[in-house]
Write a structure and sequence with these properties.
The complex is a heterodimer of chains A (257) and B (311).
Chain A (H helix, E strand, L loop, with lengths): L1 H18 L2 H22 L3 E4 L2 E4 H31 L2 H6 L5 H31 L8 H22 L9 H15 L11 H8 L2 H13 L10 H21 L7
Antiparallel strand pairs in A: 1-2
Helix pairs in contact in A: 1-5, 2-3, 2-5, 3-5, 3-6, 3-7, 3-9, 6-9, 6-10, 9-10
Chain B lengths: L8 E12 L2 E12 L3 E5 L6 H9 L6 E6 L9 H4 L2 E4 L11 H9 L8 H7 L15 H13 L5 E5 L7 H16 L3 E6 L2 H7 L2 E6 L2 E6 L1 H7 L3 E7 L21 E5 L2 H15 L3 E7 L3 H9 L3 H4 L3
Parallel strand pairs in B: 3-7, 3-8, 5-6, 6-7
Antiparallel strand pairs in B: 1-2, 1-4, 8-9, 10-11, 10-12
Classes of the chains: A mainly alpha (257), B alpha/beta (311).
Amino acid sequence: MRGLALALRQVRYENAGFWRNPLAAFFTIAFPLMFLVIFNLLFGSTELDVEGGVISTSTFYVPGITVMGVIGACYTNVALGVCFSRDGGLLKRVRGTPLPGWALLFGKVGHAVLLAMLLVVIILAAGVLFYGVDIPSNALPAFVVSLALGAAVFCALGLAITAVIPNADAAPAVVNASILPLLFISDVFIPLHDAPAWLTTFADVFPVSHFAGALHTAFNPFETGLGFEVLDLAILAAWGVAGLALAVRFFRWEPRA
Amino acid sequence: MPTPGNSAAAIEVRGLRKSYGALEAVRGVDLRVAHGEVFALLGPNGAGKTTTVEILEGHRVRSAGEVSVLGHDPASGERAFKERVGIVLQSAGVDPFLSVEETLNLFRGYYPRPLPLDDLLDAVGLREKRRERVRRLSGGQQRRLDVAVGLAGDPELLFLDEPTTGFDPSARREAWEMVGGLKERGKTILLTTHYMEEAEHLADRVAIMNQGLIVAEGRPSELTQRQAATTVRFRLADGAPAPPGDFAAPPEGMDGAYTLTTAEPTRDLHRLTAWVVEHGVELQELSVSRPSLDDVFIDLTGHSAAEDGQS
């Protein structure tokens, strides 16, 4: 009980620290929006074939950039935050206090999830206001569940990746190299209709395409059912479990000497 | 303040060893620190002092030996242990975007019986800076905040790892006053330092580590007494005759001084002054000095503490 109260308190302090660096906060939020605008400028006038009909490319990019936003807030942000705290001695220092280690990490993860929620709201609002995109109605529960699962999974993977990052200087390179290529080959930045089959098969090994698949289905206006992509969600969840297990096993509280 | 399960000493270490692969960083250390004592661990870089302290803090797991800190085995990582100690590491480890007050409150919240905020601010002289963001504090102020964070839980035992490295002399003196104040509150303090002067000033007892072993231990005055030699030093006016006996001549062409390191300073001084009267010369800048802890350190480790400097 006390542990949980302490963990929630960590979220509050993480959040306070985040907003104290206004320029960083601004661009963290503006970054996915910039991508939304750019991709719409480049490809917004075209149309896409989806299951059941044809959609505007804008309808593709709202869930796509939502994937990017959630991954940025959860995976990238958690991994970099942990690496910087680790290099700065914050993790080690807290480790010497009665605060349970998991509560400290919960603070970072909890803050990341709140940030992801804020980003999703902003991206959806922009989609509705500027690009005439419809929010899912029948598939709204599927959208919310997929988002929540995706956020949790990418937080776990963000924690796991820190085990192979030696220090904070290496963190941006490792984190970006591990995620940016996947965003290009997983139906996030570019619709994959014309991609070679082996490439989509390769992308399907990783969690990003399944997260994107779940959100695209929920956003498909021709979806008549509940829109749950059970297989995508199962693979996504498996990645989350693996990430969590690796994080628990290999997490380091100090930078590699 | 004795607590059930406490041994008589705050820290009790026997046969402590720590290996990193083939490298044995600590090679059999025995240590005993009494409650309320300020104990300094000295040694050149790589002597094993940080490894030793980190084992006592619970940050490292030992390879062999017995360790009891406030009656706990630090390796167990029990919360009860962490509630009773404060750790000030060499690196800061606080969020630069929080204020001094927020940082202290964050850490106070981790402990069952924290010190009142105002007490903490006063203990480290940061009352005026309470609303300042951590990143806007000077280096010395950040270090003091570090110490305050270490004190947040009102620990019985405080670990201070090189508390004044990188300080200018006035900041160092302030930090010393602060540690003196902690001692008056009855805290047990284990500190590591590169500065002999700091150890002499603050510590009740000192241990000097070299190559993973404690090579000397005792009160600073005991250690300097163990080094029996006293140094007699003076200059002579140009053209004066050479002094008697064992006084080493200053190097050629240098404005050096004659020096003699002796175990019998009274006898040698008597001979010297007799010679002075006999020859009608005057000694310039005559000094007779007891060995400093620095001399002991160099003698035992082959290093000068100052030349090690920052780690």
